[in-house]
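Quick one: structure tokens for this chain, please?
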Amino acid sequence: MMTRDADDKRTQIVYFCIDDLVPEDHLLRMIDKALDWTFIYDLVKDKYSADEGRPSMDPVTLIKMPFIQYLYGIRSMRQTIKEINVNVAYRWFLGLGLHEAPPHFTTFGKNYTRRFKDTDLFEQIFEHILEECYKHGFVDPSEVFVDSTHVKARANTHKKRRELARKESLFYEEQLKAEINQDRASHGKKPLKEKDDDDLSGGEAAEIKVSTTDPESGWFHKGEHKQVFAYGVSTAADKHGWILGYDVNPGNKHDSRTFVGLYEKIKGIGVERIIADAGYKTPAIAKLLLDEGITPVFPYTRPMTKDGFFKKYEYVYDEYYDCYICPNNKVLKYSTTNRNGYREYKSNPEDCKVCPHLQQCTQSANRTKVVTRHVWASYLETCDDIRHTLGMKDLYKKRKETIERIFGTAKEYHGLRYTHMYGKARMNMKVSLTYACMNLKKLAKMLRMKGKPDGNEPLAGCIIAQLFIIRVFSVSRILESWNKHSRTNNKAVLA
């Protein structure tokens, strides 16, 4: 029998509790159980006045709004508010009633501009959630995987200008300068002269492309052809996929330059090994980690020599005599130590003239082969020895299961592929909340799976709804029942 009761169901009158409309296994319910959100009140109490102004919006509700956005990868706050308006689970998570209007989509943006800007609130939220992960024993910081990804900035690629900018000083510049002068002195060379920092026309300056829309972003070569303005997000994670730290920089900075900012945030937490790709395999980073007692795990890098020429490893370094021996068994003696920290070893042109391997060795017009060696090259050699240690190659392969998976999840499900915001500060906020959401989601699922709730058990249901729930009746049926009862009473009175 065909029925038409859709209209009847749309006009149903029901007494219920909003808590009963959210399933027990809903993600937001698990997240709300896993974390005590009252910690936000302590973080923002200095940003609110107790005596002046109108009553504010609940800070917990205010912070939960972007959490919903980044947790479900909603593209904007405007769309998030639209989703909150019709989604019962979102309303339950925010503490809004069914008839209560959600906040305007500009509410969070105005609070950020006027109240939370230039603060570390969102970094503190990320750190607090990470501490909760530590408390439950899920995090193991002994092995840390490090890498970076790029997030497309909200900047038109055609709206840019060229500027001459001074190159930023390296974190190890002063230490390297002292090492170079010491090395030159040991070889009977004079110290290098100091450069004039005010001169932009020299080799320390470079022409860069700057966006007129978002000047804090950087010009990034995405693949071989596409070029965009972007931000670089350096990230550290443990072997279980927990995000331990991050650092946001312009997209035109190399990984080796941004590493120290990330390292400052994760050192001191019990790191024993750092696993990173070839972009971090530099003498300075190797020295930094080994001096700190941390084992660096780097991959094998192929020699960058032209085809048909001898590879650098075919020139044998003699540490005792401080020289190189070429494939023709000739000696390359020390010449100088340049400003970049490389010792230069040069061959004797008279030996090279009659060498049968000259065409495989050098194309120099003066028939002189130059081999360079960094003053900290021994640290890289130690890293190569570590790579051949048992288990290190298998450990490096776990990168695709940890840090690479984090990037894929963040971009595919949490909206980190690009940003609608301007400026490094807002980008830092976006990354903070996104990574906080990812850690919190993982924490909630782990607690549910292992059966380790934090003691804040949710109510099984609304008591009033349990006691006074009424079976579903349509408006038409209620009226029909009432009319029938009235007719029965009228007949009894007439009788």
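Residues 58 and 76 are 21 Å apart (CA to CA).
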